[in-house]
Design a protein that fits this description.
The protein is built from 11 helices and 7 strands. By secondary structure, it is of the alpha/beta class. This is RpiR family transcriptional regulator.
């Protein structure tokens, strides 16, 4: 088991780097903590250690041990990092949702307000989660592709199909890999092309298999995904992380579609310049 770090991360970026460094060597329970935190960083600032532990499926003591392995004295110190990072901008999400439930429990207008609030928080977090250099590299790779192959199944499918539609309107050659008839069409991906994979936890096996096949052939892969710690990082993949705040068991695509629109337009613009 990894030893506790001498110094706690002091930025969200260094926190993510530390999480990547230690996650592979963790035992099962602590790896559950790492996976849950990676996919739910938006919850750290507003949750208790008991709530985080429950989400990860472990005892609070195990979650506290996980915090210490990352270099923190405990959960409170880790939580303080996230609260300070969002000073002036972090909304009291739990309080607002509680108020909505009290004033208009279960009504369509309350649900609309709750989902709108979750979408707003997701959009604000998008600006901080996507590294500008990684975004530039992704645009460069996609703009230089002969054909952009796009795969996104289940919850990711609306994003993938939208991007193919946007590229078609801009005259950019793109192909949607939908898995219809259990056909992945990986032989259509040729040298000079680029694969754009969109997948979120729990990750689509079909998408991961296609990424692995293509990556082994030396074809560039750009991925839109939700967690810092995910199966794609073991492959040679350029990742653009995006986190969606959920309401109940439902997670929208507000931030993901925003990133998809920005990426599509940036690629179309770059191709016109070239």
């Amino acid at each position: 088991m990894p030893e506790a770090m001498a110094r706690a991360p002091d930025t969200i970026r260094s926190f993510e780097e530390r999480l990547l460094d230690v996650s592979e060597g963790l035992p099962k329970r602590l790896r559950q903590c790492a996976d849950y935190v990676a996919a739910n960083k938006d919850r750290i600032a507003v949750s208790t250690v008991a709530e985080m532990a429950d989400g990860a499926g472990v005892q609070p003591s195990a979650f506290m041990r996980f915090c210490q392995i990352l270099g923190f004295s405990g959960f409170s110190e880790m939580q303080r990092l996230f609260r300070e990072s969002y000073v002036g901008g972090w909304p009291d999400y739990s309080t607002r949702l509680h108020h909505l439930r009290e004033t208009a429990s279960g009504s369509p207008s309350a649900l609309l307000a709750e989902f709108a609030e979750a979408g707003r928080i997701s959009l604000e977090g998008l600006v901080q989660s996507v590294d500008s250099q990684a975004l530039e590299l992704a645009v460069e790779a996609l703009a230089g592709a002969g054909v952009i192959h796009i795969v996104g199944l289940r919850r990711s499918f609306p994003v993938a199909s939208y991007m193919v539609y946007a590229f078609e309107k801009m005259g950019v050659a793109a192909m949607l890999h939908s898995g219809v008839g259990k056909l992945d069409n990986h032989h259509a991906i040729r040298e000079g092309d680029v694969l754009l994979a969109i997948t979120f936890s729990p990750y689509s096996t079909e998408t991961l298999d296609l990424v692995e096949q293509v990556s082994r052939r030396g074809i560039p892969v750009v991925a839109i995904t939700d967690a810092v710690v995910n199966p794609l990082r073991k492959l040679d993949v350029l990742t653009l992380p995006v986190a969606e705040v959920d309401f109940g068991a439902f997670r929208s695509l507000s931030a993901t579609l925003c990133l998809a629109i920005a990426l599509s337009v940036a690629v179309g613009t770059a191709r016109q310049r070239n």
